[in-house]
Amino acid sequence: MAILSAAEQYKILAENTAEIITEEEFKKKLEKSVAEKIPLRCKLGIDPSAPDLHLGHAVVLHKLRQFQELGHHIIIILGDFTGMVGDPTGRSEMRKQLTKEEVMANARTYQEQIFNILDEEKTEMVFNSEWLAKLNFADVIKLASTLTVARMMEREDFSRRYSENTPISIHEFFYPLMQGYDSIAIKADIEFGATEQKFNLLMGRHLQREYGQEPQVAFTMPILVGLDGVQKMSKSLGNYIGITEPAEEIYGKAMSIGDDLMAEYYHLATALPSSEIKIILDGVKDNSVHPRDAKMRLAREIVSLYHGSQAAKDAEERFKQVFQKGKMPDQMPSFDFNKPVALVVLMVEAGLAPSKSEARRLIQQKGVKINSETVEAVDLILDKSDEVVIQVGKRKFARVTIK
Q1: Torsional sign, CA 37, 38, 39, 42
Q2: What is the pLDDT of residue 87?
């Protein structure tokens, strides 16, 4: 595509951000980039602390994609070194340190999943151990000397833990210094992160000045609220939509969000332009668009991003058959067992529940059916039988045969 003017790029790139520090510096960087035809170096640091990415992670990745489509250079830093320390952001206690093996296993899945959003051929991906592991003790002392303890204690999570007499390990102070040093190592023009990462992003600006570089611009992105409408999206809380989940699972989860979250999800979890989103949401407000139809459009848009438009149409049709017409889905996983099996065990092995304790909870809450009949007994044993259909909640089904 033709190179857009700095003003045109700013209008696109500033949209749906939480804060740009500073806007004036960003405008100047864009103007210089356009004038000299040199792309901006855009940094996102990710610590592989969990194996999967969800829509909350994708918010910043889609912003990076916008920069990428406008010709700027994207650098993903996988924090194999910082990941072994652990980001203290938002923590009420010291984070458990991961082993090198755990970090690298998670990093491999990140490498695969990130390119569901970014263009692999136009993305540079590096590990920060390339430079952090090479620092000697004198280098570390020099780095630490650029910051006072008082400045570090301005950080909300540190000050709270200190006031509550909760231990703070010295190595945790080094985390923001290491993340900031990443910006020096790659000469970042822009760094991205969620709003909770603001302290770390500003540390990059501070250290770049200390080391004689032009400070990066910090882009903070809104935090996506999870499906529960209360807490931020998190796999550990179970309120997430994974970007690699099956199309019908993503569609069903999107349909479960509250009407009051639609605007946030349209802006942060789809690629629709704001002008089109406004038409849809205005239609909901003036009753010319039914909220259900708006939500179905939202679900289609999200599925299309990760599975394509045809998969989105198929997922919507399956959703209509199962939820609006009360029919069983035509396709569902099948499992054969050669001996009697406890229902809670079967549910875990069939992927209908993450654990036996969760399976028991679902049964107690009347959320499990066998051949459309609600299961009452938590300790039910399934014996030899013809094929049965087990349903958990509204979206999970499995065909099971006990031989």
Answers
A1: negative
A2: 56
Do the Cβ atoms of 123 and 78 come closer than 8 Å? no
Enumerate long-range contacts of 170-176, CB under 8 Å, 24 or more apart: 171/85, 172/85, 172/86, 172/88, 172/94, 172/95, 173/144, 174/85, 174/140, 174/144, 175/82, 175/85, 175/86, 175/87, 175/88, 175/200, 176/152, 176/200, 176/203
SS3 per residue for 126-179: EECHHHHCCCCHHHHHHHHCCCCHHHHCCCHHHHHHHHCCCCCCHHHHHHHHHH
Q: Please check the confidence at residue 288 and state whether its pLDDT lies above 90.
A: yes
112 vs 115: CA distance, rounded Å: 6
**318: its two tokens:** 């399956």
DSSP single-letter state for residue 67: H
pLDDT in tens, 63-118: 999 999 999 999 999 888 887 765 555 444 444 566 777 777 777 778 788 888 99
Strand 368-370 and strand 385-392: the pairing is: antiparallel
In angstroms, the CA 187 to CA 200 distance is 16
List Cβ neighbours of 253 (8 Å cut-off, separation of 6 or more): 227, 241, 245, 395
- C-alpha torsion sign, points 371, 316, 354, 337: positive
Please write the tens of the pLDDT for every residue from 150-184.
888 877 778 888 888 888 888 788 888 999 999 99
- Tell me the C-alpha distance between 375 and 367, whole Å: 8
Tell me which DSSP letter residue 232 carries.
B
Q: Quick check: 67 and 217 in contact, CB under 8 A? A: no
CA–CA gap between residue 78 and residue 64 (Å, rounded): 15
How far, in Å, CA of 282 to CA of 226, rounded? 23
Any idea which residue has 């051949």 for tokens? 371
Position 323 confidence tier, pLDDT thresholds 50, 70, 90: low
